[in-house]
Design goal:
The protein is mainly alpha-helical and 140 residues long. It has 8 helices and no strands. The chain has a domain at 63-135: Serine Threonine Protein Phosphatase 5, Tetratricopeptide repeat (Alpha Horseshoe), CATH 1.25.40.10. It has helices spanning 9-21, 25-38, 43-55, 59-72, 77-89, 93-106, 111-123, 127-135. 38% of the residues are buried.
């Protein structure tokens, strides 16, 4: 895989980040998928794919990508928060709440995750739990 004319997974990852920064989602997706062909446990490649898929409205693919991130690193609060966002964007509110709860369990002072949890409770009409989550938001 590292022979002449072939890119290493590191080069593919850097290329993916560059494409993502330039807003070229198709090429970024291709580059991150190349990383995963060589290194299927690459947390950041999965995470970046999730970001791209959410940004392009491909919520089922985003959920799949973020599920891989939490499988690889189950103690990453940002990954759980992002999974919750993907679930919420897909209208899967109970799963979103579970993911946000996991994020704040891991990182109790994560204001963004508490806010996302409160907003999801509000969308579901559970204003008491929304208020409780809002009270937990720690100013940054």
């Amino acid at each position: 895989m590292f022979g002449f004319g072939k890119k290493s997974w590191v080069e593919w990852f850097k290329l993916g980040v560059s494409y993502e920064g330039a807003g070229n989602y198709d090429k970024a997706i291709d580059a991150f998928q190349q990383v995963l062909l060589v290194n299927p446990e690459h947390f950041a490649a999965w995470f970046n794919l999730g970001l791209i898929y959410v940004g392009t409205g491909q919520f089922v693919k985003a959920i799949d990508a973020y599920q891989q991130t939490v499988r690889i690193n189950p103690d990453d609060a940002a990954a759980w928060d992002s999974l919750g966002t993907a679930y919420g964007s897909a209208g899967q509110f109970p799963k979103a709440i579970a993911a946000f709860k996991e994020a704040v369990r891991i990182k109790p002072d994560d204001a963004q995750a508490w806010q996302n949890l409160a907003e999801t409770y509000s969308v579901m009409g559970d204003f008491i739990k929304a208020a409780e989550a809002n009270r937990r938001i720690v100013p940054r």
